[in-house]
Write a structure and sequence with these properties.
Two copies of one chain form a homodimer. Chain A has 192 residues and is an all-alpha fold. The first copy, chain A, has helices at 9-23, 30-37, 41-48, 51-74, 80-97, 105-113, 118-145, 154-174, 179-190. The first copy, chain A, has a domain at 60-191: Orthogonal Bundle (Tetracycline Repressor, domain 2). The structure holds a DNA duplex (30 and 30 nucleotides).
Chain lengths: 192, 192
DNA sequence: CTTATTTTGTACCCACAGGTAAAGAAATGG
DNA sequence: CCATTTCTTTACCTGTGGGTACAAAATAAG
């Protein structure tokens, strides 16, 4: 009952995600959001409650699309080292191909809001946990298949891969070309 | 000639650095700066020109104090692996001991401003270059001393160490304890 | 002591961030 | 077709971000 929405809330959250991803939280204004979502300010506040609540939804959407896609890529079948190389290589490629060089929204959010926004910090923390878990499964698989020495601490390797991945995506924000990033991948694979 | 300044500009830039480091660029207001520096708004704008110019000076100061200290720590004498462990270990310790969990200002700036602020991006890029160069020298030394296999690509290893370091400091912003960070260090040392 | 130069404090300013209020429009149930 | 509910539009509002203007104060040079 009542008047139906004139816009698709999911599509609106998607647009909001794009804006927050590109500009960050503090630098995004209500006007930016109104312009990007193509709806009136009234509708925006009626539907989402406010800037922070919308950001939260945008970040969840990022988790359910981008972060999930990364995990699924790690979990694909195939030789472990090759999979890792393809995954990291694709990240670098996409990051550098992006004209806005937005990097990873989870990483950017950690850097911008971890100190002041407990909700955002928590969401990011959990995304990192999931990614690390995927890396850990990958390492375990590599150890069973003989691609990675069973002597090495799988948990520690998974944490290292997470750190390297996070570092890669942050370096991509200021990189002038692929060289350094490619070297990171090369050395990481060689280190397993 | 003319009336002398009533405050120490270096001390003021130091305070500004602390504020920007803690809150980020966009979230820092002129009022925050006036409060932290303990000078009037007139003096602030007369002496520094504006928020962005002051931020630039604060970031340079960060480079000349914090980032330089890291490079110097990497360059200290002693066994290579031990030095690396101590350096990364100290970073983690300091990051976790900081009640505000500010992490690394260069990393935070890369995440917040790389897309929109060419000056800041350039400063950060150069800090990363210097840190990588220090890592590269460290790796070369390790290869000459036999601590690191000469078969490995020193440049690639240096890039990987930079990426891991950057990742570590970002992970520290959302970490709930030292465990994951310690594992990153452990696996990194074991990977050389 | 005067003049020229710089700093400082106070007052002021405009745009916009972030959001609220209220009235009208579009649905649905009875 | 009336009542109710929800969405939309437009108007409005307060606080503050980021900065400027200006007079008064403090120096140094001559």
């Amino acid at each position: 009952m009542g008047r139906p929405k004139q816009f698709d809330p999911d599509a609106a959250v998607e647009q909001a995600m794009q804006v927050f991803w590109r500009k960050g939280y503090a630098a995004t204004t209500p006007q930016d959001l109104v312009d990007a979502l193509g709806i009136g300010k009234g509708s925006l506040y009626n539907a989402f409650g406010g800037k922070h609540a919308l950001f939260e939804r945008a970040l969840r959407r990022y988790r359910d699309s981008q972060a999930l896609a990364l995990v699924e890529m790690i979990e694909e079948p195939g030789p472990v080292r090759e999979r890792l190389r393809r995954t990291l290589g694709l990240l670098v490629e996409l990051d550098l191909a992006d004209p806005d060089r937005r990097g990873c929204m989870a990483v950017n959010t950690a850097a911008e809001l971890a100190g002041t926004d407990e909700i955002a910090a928590d969401l990011v923390r959990r995304m990192f946990d999931r990614t690390e878990a995927a890396f850990r499964a990958l390492v375990g698989e590599g150890q069973r298949s003989g691609e990675i020495s069973p002597d090495r601490d799988a948990r520690a390797l998974a944490s290292m891969l997470l750190s390297t991945g996070v570092g890669l995506r942050l370096l991509a924000r200021v990189a002038t070309g692929p060289d350094r990033l490619d070297r990171v991948i090369e050395a990481t694979i060689d280190s397993l």
